[in-house]
């Protein structure tokens, strides 16, 4: 990750930060986690989006790399004529924070999903503290349009994402680390496919609205597990597509690949949530 001088960037963005709105209407911060006995299958994501729509401005994902855990941040941005994968400097300014981070262009020409930049960010980077203490961040990709990232309600989700990601086992030391504690009953619950045969929808809580977003490069099916433990098809998503499903807390939803193999299972809490489908295809052998 390369950083460059920031004095000019601060002058450029100061006016933007002073005049921008406090937060974008309808956007909310959502922290989702999928816990698996294998830490390399555990997924932690932090999203800033409008529930029940395709509008997503920010996605942070915890990663385990050769040097330890870190995060990738995807920011929606105007990237002009830049090509997919092109390097671009992102100038960022917040309260007591200013920096320039080099990332890569993503989502060029995508009709659905996030178009902007992807940044690799260490967990001790000052940007995480800025996201917990600032009212907003102003940012610009290259020399393009200035953008504002509203941070109302971000402090707690950001803190939990960073803490959980930092607590992930280091490479080569997986067995020595304790497994993360299960989420509290009021939170969204992620279950592994190995539990599917024993799971069935029996408990119904408050109304839930789930926006499923396919962030993989393959077809994904969305199925509801009924009271008899039988999967019932509800939706199909091609790469980059999304749709919103009305449900209830405690209902069980399964994500499959094209042949129908279970990839992940999701049980929502009451209210609105965004579930980013990221599990890759698994080689199950001959069908």
TrEMBL record:
von Hippel-Lindau disease tumour suppressor beta domain: residues covered: 207-258
Tagged with keyword ATP-binding: no
Gene3D superfamilies xrefs: von Hippel-Lindau disease tumour suppressor, beta domain
Residues in the signal sequence: 1-23
Record keywords, A-Z: Signal
Stored InterPro entries: VHL_beta_dom, VHL_beta_dom_sf, VHL_sf
Protein name as it appears in the record: von Hippel-Lindau disease tumour suppressor protein
Organism for this UniProt entry: Bauldia litoralis
